[in-house]
Each structure stands twice: as structure tokens, then as C-alpha cells.
Amino acid sequence: MLDFEKALAGKSVFVTGHSGFTGSWLCAWFAKAGINVSGFSLAPEPHEALFSLLGLDDDVSSVTGDILDLGRLQRAMKDAQPEIVIHLAAQPLVRKSYREPLRTFAVNAQGTANVLEAARLTPSVRGIVAITTDKVYDNREWAWAYRENDPIGGKDPYSASKAAAEMVIKGYRSLPGGEGGMPLIATARGGNIIGGGDFSEDRLIPDFVRAVGTGNPLTLRFPDATRPWQHVLALVQGYGTLAAGLLSDAPEKVARAWNLGPNDPGQYTVRSVLETMSGVWTRPDLRYLDEPLPEAGALQLDSRLAYNEINWRQPWSVPRMVEETALWYREHARSGDMRAFTGAQIDAWRRGLAALAAS
Fold first, then answer.
1. Top-confidence residue, 226 or 94
2. Average of pLDDT values for 320-342?
3. Per-residue pLDDT averaged across 142-157, rounded?
4. CA geometry: angle 261, 267, 271, nearest 5 deg
5. Residue 311, Cβ neighbours under 10 Å: how many?
6. Would you say 269 and 322 are in contact if contact means Cβ atoms under 8 Å apart?
7. 128 phi and psi angles, rounded to 5 deg
8. Domain-by-domain residue ranges, the chain?
9. pLDDT-based confidence at 298, cuts 50/70/90?
10. What is the CATH topology of the domain spanning 3-197+229-265+298-316+338-350?
11. What are the distances in angstroms from CA 40 to CA 3, 13, 64?
12. Is residue 34 classed as helix, strand or coil in its secondary structure?
């Protein structure tokens, strides 16, 4: 077992947004490790099928609810009596934030405040891992990677709402701690998450998958933009590592912001990711968008703090991450056993970590 699995085995973890894409991978991994997960999320949309595909209903105690409903959220958390809260629930789509800015700010900023308030009022909670994004930084389109102490900002409603969530967290950190006080909080800022089972609207990989399935053209925006591509397993591993740190003998060392970005030094564009996907599976008709909405062209994360302080590692290169993602969707298209296939990918990642540790 990995160190974080040993630390969390048998512990109670409360996850908001547990039935979404990242939440489903987290629940699948945690269930394999013997971690007790309770979840709170909206009822899944028709396209959010991963939780059911993986048969996680029997592994997770689920409550349906909106994090904007503080009373229901607080009751669910108190009933679960968790030691750790992992806050994943969010409105995560940049372009949707242009259509629904008020909802985006409400969910990502006020929703975060509600989760922290519910945790503050639940005596069993010892630590919170709050997930934000690499897009919280004031992106100046420079060549240097962003560090945790760089200014936060946001040029679109999604980025600004996540930066606002970081300010909410900063405010809650100032509240008195100790017994009966505010639990310690770690924030995780990850990159563009890829991996099998993401069926969201207006995202690169799901759009690719839909184009393959329907035979319709795939329209690309900013094909030469680089992104800090991350397999979902890298982030789940990071969240688990931070959660374990908050239960350690020195939890205050973990209660800060952490970049969880790629360790692969290559620069991978939208175009190169799709070329790799096409090489593993098949190639749809690719087209380009003439007048896209404003979006960042380059953003890198400096994750040396996580590598050096919490020994966070990634065993796969970005091309391997993309290949494994394509293999997942190819298996799904063949009506494969996705619980078994997903479990096999989790185990492959864990074996890669073990090999890194032994080298």
C-alpha cells in the first residue's frame, strides 16, 4: 500500500462532488484502499455516467444535494462524522461560466464558504482538502511557471470565481483553530485533467470521443495552446497525500496551497494531445474555430514544493497519460467492463509509483 492509503485506511472521508468525473476516480481508488467514503453531490446529469459505470453505489454512502443548501450539506456532513473533507464540487467549465457567470460565482465561491462552514461546525473534521485550479493565477502569458506565492486573479468568470474561492479559504484559515475550532485547510491547484470517463460538455477529450462516436467534425479552439495536462490519477493521488498529511503528527506543514502540475518538461499543445489520441484510437474530422472566446494561451505550474515536501510523484509521461485515456474510451466503446478496466489503470499507476520509489 502507498503511504497515504495506509494513513487513510479505515478513516472516514467526506467528498463533495463525489459522483463527478474526478470524484468517481477518487471513490474507485479509495474504495480499493479500504477508505470509508461518504459523498454529497447534485444528481448526475445524463452525460455524467462514470459513477454508475464503475458500480460505486455500493462502495460509497451518497447524499444528493446542492452545496448552496448549507442546511442539507451540514446535516449530511454531521451524519457522516468524517475526519477529512475533500471539496471537489464546482462549476468547472470555462465557457459555461460565460453563459452562467452568476451561478459560477455562487457555486465556486459561496459554495466553498458553505463547505468550510459545515466543516467548522462538525467536530469530527480534522482537515479539509479544497480543490481549486491552476487558473487561479493572474495569468500574464509569460514563459515562467507559476509558484504558490504568485498573485491570484482571473480573466474570465470561472478563473475569477476560483480565485474568489481561494480568498474565502484564506479568510476561513484566519479563524481560531484547535479543539472545536476551524480545521486545517490545504488547497490543491491542478492542471487540465484528462482520463477516461469524462463526458462533460465543451472539453477537449470528451469532444474528441463524441466526434469519434458520431462521425461529426471536431471543431478546435486554440489548437496550439499549451496546457499543464494531468491524468486524473495524479490529482487523486495528490489529494489523498494532502489528506493523509492533515492527519499526520505535523498537519500544519500541509495546511497551505499546493501546485500539482506535470513533471514532464515537454510542451504539449491541444494539437499534439489530439494527435496522440488519434494514433491510439481513430481520427475524426478536425476543424478550427474562427473567433473563439478569450482564453489563456500558455500556463505552467511550478510543482517543486509538492515534489520536495510531500514526495508527490507521477509515474507516467504526458503521452502515456493521453494513451491510457484513449485506451479507456476505446474499451468503453467496445462495451467493456469499465470497473475492472479502471481498477487495472489504478493498479498500473500504483505499480509505477512503487517502481519510482524503488529506483
1. 94
2. 96
3. 90
4. 110
5. 11
6. no
7. -130, 130
8. 3-197+229-265+298-316+338-350
9. low
10. Rossmann fold (3.40.50)
11. 26, 11, 6
12. coil
